[in-house]
Amino acid sequence: MRKLVVAVGLLMLGVLVGGGCGGGEPQGKSLAQQYQEALKLSDARQKATKLATLAGKQKQAGDLLSMGSTLSAAKEAAYQVKDADSRARTLAEIAAAYARMEHGPDDVKKMLKDAAAATKEIEDPLTKIRVLAELAATTGKSVKNVDLAASYLKTAEETAGTLESPPSKTIALGSIAAAYHKIERSADADRVIKVATDQARAQSDLPVQTECLAEIAGALYAMDKPDEAKQTLAAAEKAASEITDDEKHAYALLHIVKKMLSAKKTAGAKELLSKAQDHALKVTDNGVKMQLGSEIEALDKDL
After folding, report:
1. What is the pLDDT of residues 126-184, one digit of tens each?
2. Which of 161, 163, 139 minimizes the C-alpha distance to 151?
3. Is 0.70 topped by the overall pTM?
4. Residues 106-125 as b or e (16 or more Cβ within 10 Å = b)
5. Do 118 and 88 contact (CB within 8 A), yes or no?
6. Alpha carbon distance 212, 23 (integer Å)
7. Which of 3, 119, 147, 228 lies 20 to 30 Å from 155 when distance is taken between CA atoms?
8. Neighbours of 32 (CB within 10 A)
9. Is the pLDDT of residue 3 over 60?
10. Helix (H) or strand (E) holding 108
């Protein structure tokens, strides 16, 4: 009897430790449960993206009927997104999901058309350009419609022409050039980045020139042109070195470091941060000095 009690006790312990009789495998939520939970999400964009991800799992499981229903629910949620820029992005993402799963080609075309229409509602030009660039990249890479993608970037270029701020225009052109690169329109990518570079080098305001050149370097890294990016960063550093105002000099160097971080190319960033610290310490306005110190400390933690 004692042996029997011990055996039963060991069996119960095994069940508790193993989580049941399922061989220790984790008992996660079923795809059906995940679907119901996704439907309850109040944020339309989050709901759409969650459902699109779930549809991919359903396809992998071989449940094509449920996949189709889930994609339809994702599409419906995408159209419920209120602000235009998020709606355009979401429609493009769901269209890409449809394309990846080889489902509803007509739905893909309509969603892309409606995403493009949504960009016309975006009031901020720079935001509009960024969304158009994302839409183009999605259309070219996922949906494989390069001509349509290029048409979005032409619209983005026209919008960039309306920008007056040199840094904003540089950011816009960099986004456009990177998107051209993603859809394998290298000639257009090189053309746009050259325009941005020429405009940046023409800036007489050294802090502005530094910022613009740093933005272009980031775009060049995104275009898989590391050598050109390094040369452009060197030009940005040279422009920064000629800034006589300590506050502006420090901020210019911080902008370069931020671009290096975003591109994950941090060689030499510590040295630039140290130089920024030297200039920050010379700033007479204590409020500005503290702000610079906080930004330097935050960047140092990321390096």
Report:
1. 999 999 999 999 999 888 899 999 999 999 999 999 999 999 999 999 999 999 999 99
2. 139
3. yes
4. ebbeebbebbbebbeebeeb
5. yes
6. 59
7. 228
8. 12
9. no
10. helix 105-119
